[in-house]
Amino acid sequence: KQEVTQIPAALSVPEGENLVLNCSFTDSAIYNLQWFRQDPGKGLTSLLLIQSSQREQTSGRLNASLDKSSGRSTLYIAASQPGDSATYLCAVRMPGGGADGLTFGKGTHLIIQP
Amino acid sequence: DTAVSQTPKYLVTQMGNDKSIKCEQNLGHDTMYWYKQDSKKFLKIMFSYNNKELIINETVPNRFSPKSPDKAHLNLHINSLELGDSAVYFCASSRGTSAAYEQYFGPGTRLTVT
Question: Which of residues 61-100 of B touch A (CB under 8 A)?
């Protein structure tokens, strides 16, 4: 059974710092991996989707890497801003067709101090 | 131009009641999902529907029944509500059942059972 773990559970850093969020998964046979952002009282916003054949994806100040063989992904946030404060969720999708849902980690609660 | 919408946003009800949560997507997607986020913030798949057919049904009580009047809607009906049903319920949709398709999430419905 796939399990997704995110470290750290919470992180607080001063504005302007670069930071890394970690995600690990037990079954490396994933189809893709997605990073989401969850704001209080709001839904999940997809940030980056990495297919299993890819090593990384970039969007603005965000860079996500994937090391499928070791079961790890990182989300790098450059020049953090207070508006980046949110919970960041990592989720993996397994192959095999059908309509399997995403398997989520518990998230990293990020606070960027002004 | 909301992509995935849910109503209501908040729902407070007493044990034993029956309630429904509605979900609508205007993306033209064929597959819709319901996820539950419990008090520990763990997001888990409950159901998915493809072209109005139930594809998977994770081990949820049969008090929960998804109902899809058409492919743009997937409502969640809950009978005989229990305290443990208190959670945030998220609806999501994707173009199809392929693992390659991103899932788009609604804003969530916070259900509180007293």
Answer: 90, 92, 97-100
Give the model confidence (pLDDT) of A49-62 as tens digits: 999 999 999 999 99
User: Over 60: is that where the pLDDT of A98 sits?
Assistant: no
DSSP per-residue letters across B13-37: E-TT--EEEEEEE-S--SEEEEEEE
Contact state of A102 with B105 under an 8 Å Cβ cutoff: no
Asked if B110 and B8 touch (Cβ cutoff 8 Å), the reply is no
Q: What percent of chain B lies above the pLDDT cut of 90?
A: 63
Shortest CA gap A17–chain B (Å): 26
Q: Residue A98 and residue B33: Cβ atoms within 8 Å?
A: no
